[in-house]
Amino acid sequence: MEYIVGQRWVSHADAQLGLGVVVEVEPRRVTVNFPAVGEERTYATDGAPLTRLRFQEGDHISTTNGVELIVTSIEERQGLLLYTGTDHHEATLTVSELELDAYVQLTTPQQRLLNGHFDKNGDFALRVATFEHLDRQQRSPVRGLMGSRTSLLPHQVYIAHEVGQRFAPRVLLADEVGLGKTIEAGMIMHQQLLCGRANRLLVMVPEPLLHQWLVEMLRRFNLHFALFDEERLAQPSDGNPFDSEQLVLCSPQLFLDQPERQQQLLDAGWDLVVVDEAHHLHWSEEESGADYRLVETLASRCPGLLLLTATPEQLGQASHFARLRLLDPSRFHSLEQFIEEEKEYRRWSDMARQLEAGEVPADLPAGLDAATPPPQLIDQILDRHGTGRVLFRNTRAAVSGFPQRHLHRHPLPYPEEYALASLDLESGLHPERPYHDDSWVAFDPRVEWLEKFLKQLRPAKALVICAHADTAVALEHHLHLRAGIRSAAFYEGLSIVERDRAAAYFADEINGAQTLVCSEIGSEGRNFQFAHHLILFDLPLNPDLLEQRIGRLDRIGQQHDVQIHVPYLEGSAQHSLLDWYERGLDAFSESCSAGHMIFQRFAERLLPQLEKRTDDFEQLLADTADFTVETRRELREGRDRLLELNSCKPEQAQQLIDGIREREASDQLLNYLEALCEAFGVDSEFHSEGALILRPTEQMLTGHFPYLRDEGTTVTFDRDKGLAREDMAFLTWEHPMLVEAMDMVHSTELGNAAIGTIKLKGIPPGTMMLECLFTVNCVAPRELQVERFLPLSPMRLLVDARGKDLAHLVPHARLNELVERVKKPVALAIIKQVQTDVDAKMALATSQAEARLADILTEAEAEMRSALGAERERLAALREVNPAIRQEELDHLDYRIEECAVHIRHAGLQLQALRLILTT
């Protein structure tokens, strides 16, 4: 296959690209530009999914200047084709293939049929079904939400839909610990990729969470991220190594003090950047940390940005402001102004509460009509004055499904060896720290208690968390080597792979560890809800870290109440801190999102009491408890209430969930998959209710079927079974197996030409009918989402001998039941006799389809202008009162409206399948 610059080629894999032109040829690669969609792609010359476009005499061609010709002759010069033809003025013109219009239409089914290339009638039926299902997918309001292997939780589905549909979303996902921010981010990324809003994604997470993210994205969303670490970047690379992957996962630490790497990362060009544990980024009004500056520069160059943090305000208003200014620096430019604006949130929250109770406030903001129904007024207040456009935060109080927490105190005598030591606050909280070896293990009563308690718990698993790696290592060695308890250690001294192995060993139900001993890094990001016993060997001084620790077990999906065990030395700083957390902050009974703020409020009084408790301690506990109750009340009634209203609208979420469930309850996917397997030669065997075993065979149509392993793949269509059985692939219409298999059908010739016979009473033998399937072909960049207004819209026509369309009288399904196979020699003989009739009926069918197309395009443009125009007007009105609406969003909507209109008008018909039917 020889490529020459200037030649025109079309892609098998993606018909929506239009007509491409070769712009560069290298020994092993060829680069093709697709002007219709503004994309340039490079392929390996061996096996490129490309076909050279060669028109034949009699074909209609169009040039970029709008000239249309009927081809009369073709000549090839220096590898390029010259077409000579006549235009509508009967003038003769010669044009080079370079001048051809990129919006090319190819009608290969008719050419195949008339040249005797037939497929099975079953393949024809599969092709028709494929386009019907694709059309249904494009029209679905839950598109992009079906493909994740997750429980359909309302707050997650709502956020994924609300954020995932935006152009270049820039939001802070700040759900409380255990509500599934990682899943929300995955659902958003999956939707953005599936719908073409984003193609290049960068995810930055702390190093200990790299493999967890890698596995979660693959397991739950079928997203194959490339892990970039020191080893990957050490490999030789031609050019920018980040250009080699579309989905990249890495740690911010990889770039600190590495200006060359930072520049490569910035130059790679990302559509969406995701940053987990964003509260770790260091910022103050006086100075920014290197990690913050890196993300800030990335944020300024990339259109989309997702920040994930479970602690949006606990670290203080300045820290919260620092995250928001990454999202929109023009909106959040002044910390002082931000603090003033926050004072207004209580007013809007009180107003929303009045409206929920059916009362219309007298002091409604300007522009709001008191006659508007209360639910709409609440939406307008949230839209115009709330914070939910850039911030989403669901709380445990608003989301059901969490277990109860139970604290178990285990007082232990203070050992003489510790009592003799000179103690400061650090060694008071962690008395083993002054020891440079593990000799403390021999006399610390917490160790003896831990050993006995774990043996009593058997076979129940328990997660042990302590502050420091040295403590974790010493404890695990003792449990494993001296006490004979199956255990594993998880601490920062291990490599990422070693940590993952330790976590997997702990998760193994049959042969796994009974306990996992973690340093503080085990309290962030990891999920261990399969266990329900948590042992806090010590207590952190930061209430947010305590909540993070408890949150490893106290999560949605936990099947048991969480049992929190705290062994402590009587009279120690840990004893006092435990009392303050329990009786002052009530931190063990329920989550407190303002824990760090409360700690800062009382730190001046609390810290001296930890070193030496006095008679004032009881008053401190009482004052802390009163302040905590008042703070929780203010959060519920104030800003948190506003966020809850905007972070999850239960009715809308339930409609989306119902739509997903409806699609999953149908047998359409099962029936379609079985038809696919039959067509491609894949063996399909019943496994259990709602599950199949798929195996490759020697008779497979192609050497590859997507996501089918050599040893076979077990699939299920049941979401609950998919969540329970990791060994099964959970199939939805959005699973890559289905998406790629459907692409293999519609982007190839499979089933696009067929011939058959039927017996019909009252119709003379030898009567010919032509069954045609047309779709709307709109070549447009994916990010415009033109298919939302102009889907494939399959048009089936069944033209009889008189040119009448009988499609409504003889449905496709019924015709498939009646049609019979025609032997090849007979079929070829028939074709020779009916070529003229086929051309005539094709002309009639095309004429009827074009008449329908005109109405479809008119309606599509009107619907597009109505929907996007209304959104544009809404955002413009909102921007007058809510600066969180970015000008870029308005500009993009203007651009999108006009671009969509251009591509809709350029849309044409594409003949997808043709079947000749003769009566016998």
UniProtKB/TrEMBL annotation:
One of its GO terms (biological process) is regulation of DNA-templated transcription. Residues 449-618 form the Helicase C-terminal domain. ATP binds at residues 175-182. InterPro entries: DEXDc_RapA (IPR057342), Helicase_ATP-bd (IPR014001), Helicase_C-like (IPR001650), Helicase_RapA (IPR023949), P-loop_NTPase (IPR027417), RapA_C (IPR022737), SNF2-like_sf (IPR038718), SNF2/RAD54-like_C (IPR049730). A motif (DEAH box) lies at residues 276-279. Pfam families: Helicase_C, RapA_C, SNF2-rel_dom, Tudor_1_RapA, Tudor_RapA. Its EC number is 3.6.4.-. Residues 162-330 form the Helicase ATP-binding domain. GO terms for molecular function: ATP binding; DNA binding; helicase activity; hydrolase activity, acting on acid anhydrides. Keywords: Activator, ATP-binding, DNA-binding, Helicase, Hydrolase, Nucleotide-binding, Transcription, Transcription regulation. Transcription regulator that activates transcription by stimulating RNA polymerase (RNAP) recycling in case of stress conditions such as supercoiled DNA or high salt concentrations. Probably acts by releasing the RNAP, when it is trapped or immobilized on tightly supercoiled DNA. Does not activate transcription on linear DNA. Probably not involved in DNA repair. Interacts with the RNAP. Has a higher affinity for the core RNAP than for the holoenzyme. Its ATPase activity is stimulated by binding to RNAP. Belongs to the SNF2/RAD54 helicase family. RapA subfamily. PANTHER family: DNA ANNEALING HELICASE AND ENDONUCLEASE ZRANB3 FAMILY MEMBER, SWI_SNF-RELATED MATRIX-ASSOCIATED ACTIN-DEPENDENT REGULATOR OF CHROMATIN SUBFAMILY A-LIKE PROTEIN 1. This is RNA polymerase-associated protein RapA. It comes from Parahaliea mediterranea.
